[in-house]
Amino acid sequence: MRNIFKSILFFSLILYLLPLRAQLLQVQDATLSGYKYPFAVKYFEVSMEGSPYKMAYMDVAASGKNANPETIVLLHGKNFSGAYWKQTISYLSEQGYRVIVPDQIGFGKSDKPEVYYTFHQLAHNTNALLLHLGIKKTTVVGHSMGGMLATRFALLYPEQTHKLILENPIGLEDYRTFVPYKTIEELYQEELKRTEASIRNYHKTYYTAWKPAYDEWVQLPASQIASKDYPVVAKAAALTYAMIFQQPVVYEFSQLKVPVMLVIGQTDRTIVGKGYIKDKQKVEQHGQYPLLGQQTAGAIPNAKLIELSQIGHIPHIEAPAQFHKALTDFLKQN
């Protein structure tokens, strides 16, 4: 009887995943127009270098019984879009929060212009979106590159930032001091060489153990490789890599004036540009998130540090229950 139940469960899972896999396997254009996000997508027009561009975002209302007047903004990492926040969006909505999840210009369903990208500009775009939506103050959650952006947002707009949550942010050290410099053209050519296998191998470094559920976040970027739009995607990826490399926030953590929580998966060893480092000793010396988390918490006035053992770069996917508990505990603090 138990084997029959397992078989039914297995085939039910396959039937659930087949439509998703079919959606991902088709070739996706530069703005993922054939990929359905977990919640309705809207668009907001922003101006960069004198031209208008579409910024995609999800605006998810509170669904829980105890509606909270607070709004939470979730900022994605470099190799992702807002879609990978789907579990966290659902959780926060059920807890009574309104949740805003933008795709930054250059990512996801947003336009990907060939412009000079800056965290200042992306923070400005995000704030313009929030003001457009009538949101004057918000808690900002940033993962990976989104942590750098969230930090810049809080530095630029402390009056609009209620609290700041940094989830395994990159930029906790200055990559310029130990990662070899690459020109935009070199970075662009590297992006053009991407394959589904190379993307998967990189994503496997994010987790302590690989699970089939993680494959969606590999297939989504891989689905763009065969598109005629892929050079546009690749150029945006190169330009935003340069933004990360050239615009550190590590020297400004002490200037943050809002309540901050750091959530750090302890097995994370992410280094932006690690593959360009030939000196193995430098690789071993950097990307040490247990140490970087403690150093950063020490630099930020009154920061709270949550250390998640046996968890990698993306706690909200690998350990959602732990991440969500830390998140809501901090949100409820006065």
TrEMBL record:
GO cellular component: membrane
Keyword Transmembrane: no
Residue span(s) of domain AB hydrolase-1: 71-320
Pfam families: Abhydrolase_1
InterPro entries listed in its UniProt record: AB_hydrolase_1, AB_hydrolase_fold, AB_hydrolase_sf, Epox_hydrolase-like
One example GO MF annotation: monoacylglycerol lipase activity
Keywords on record: Hydrolase
A Gene Ontology biological process term: acylglycerol catabolic process
Record has Electron transport as a keyword: no
PANTHER family: HYDROLASE, PUTATIVE (AFU_ORTHOLOGUE AFUA_2G14860)-RELATED, MONOACYLGLYCEROL LIPASE
Protein's name in the database: Alpha/beta hydrolase
Organism: Pontibacter arcticus
